[in-house]
Design a protein that fits this description.
heterodimer, A: mainly alpha, 5 helices, elongated, B: mainly alpha
Chain lengths: ~120, ~200
């Protein structure tokens, strides 16, 4: 089985990884705001901020080599950053699953309460 | 020809969109589209187009980009497939165990046992993924995982403040005038009837 090198293209420093986390959440947030668009939520300011957080650094990254940018290059940078972010989320998966397994274990051992309402009040 | 990187990015975006549609209101009917959109997203991630051939436009572009080669595509597909199997099996296992436990209904040992089998299977899929072992034995990758988490927390803090700022800009409603005598009697009567079971 081949391995996927998450840390390609020189994006491997501590600060860059903080930025990848910032980028991934901003990307997800902007998609979320667009998909669940509702004027009563007043989404314009958060949406503009999240799009700016995504686009400005991506544009700067594409302009780094030849001071020019294109949609193709932007999409490639977006792909690289989202893949790195998703890869980092995946690396946390075993730790998350460990907590979930402990919770499932306590659920399995749990005995049915004779009075759920009293138990809820006591807890 | 669709460049596989663009398709992967679009499919990932569709998956996020599907998750948002599934969980969020206020137009609850939107959630009907979540399943099909998620299916399109997953299919797009799994069935990536082949690498461009030498006479196609994207071929030269692909020579310049380091992740756009046969190894990069194969590795990406491998990670996506194993991750989908691990995530889906763990979600299925959790649902089955919760359903089989005594939280909402009577305890069902068969459901519980099958849930645990699926959970063990998801742990097995994780153990079969070499990148986890490789990552957890490298201190630099552990640091990057922590840095990524800090980035996520920083962005959540940032968006929390942005949303709070937006809410502060929202014009406040004028204070409501107190109930007059007629309204007060009406409300009292409604509460009295409800407490007495509609008598």
């Amino acid at each position: 089985m081949t391995t996927f090198d998450l840390l390609s293209d020189g994006i491997s420093s501590f600060g860059a990884m903080i930025f990848v986390g910032l980028f991934l959440i901003s990307f997800c947030f902007s998609v979320h705001l667009i998909v669940t668009w509702n004027p009563y939520h007043r989404p314009v300011i958060p949406l503009v901020c999240s799009i700016l957080i995504c686009i400005i650094p991506a544009t700067l990254l594409t302009m780094e080599q030849d001071s020019s940018t294109s949609i193709e290059e932007m999409l490639e940078v977006f792909f690289l950053l989202t893949s790195l972010g998703a890869g980092m989320v995946l690396l946390w998966l075993p730790i998350i699953l460990l907590f979930v397994t402990i919770m499932m274990f306590s659920l399995t051992k749990r005995k049915p309460s004779p009075d759920p309402l009293i138990e809820m009040i006591e807890n | 020809m669709v460049f596989w990187v663009n398709q992967a990015l679009l499919s990932f975006t569709l998956l996020i969109a599907a998750f948002s549609m599934w969980r969020m209101g206020p137009a609850f009917k939107r959630s009907r589209f979540a399943g099909p959109v998620a299916l399109i997203g997953i299919s797009g991630l799994i069935f990536l187009p082949e690498q461009p051939l030498y006479f196609e436009n994207d071929y030269h572009r692909c020579e310049l980009v380091s992740f756009c080669n046969d190894d990069g595509r194969e590795s990406y597909l491998n990670v996506v497939k194993w991750s989908i199997i691990s995530i889906f099996s763990s979600i299925l296992a959790c649902f089955t165990i919760i359903k089989g436990s005594s939280i909402y209904s009577k305890r069902n040992p068969i459901l519980l046992a099958s849930g645990w089998i699926v959970l063990v299977f998801s742990w097995w899929t994780i153990s079969q993924s070499p990148w986890f072992l490789e990552a957890y034995t490298r201190i630099d990758v552990i640091f990057w995982m922590v840095a990524f988490l800090l980035g996520v927390l920083a962005s959540l803090y940032l968006f929390f403040n942005i949303i709070r700022f937006t809410e502060k800009l929202t014009p406040k409603d004028p204070p409501i005038t107190p109930l007059d005598e007629k309204e007060r009697r009406l409300v009292t009567e409604m509460i009295r009837r409800n407490l007495r079971g509609g008598v």
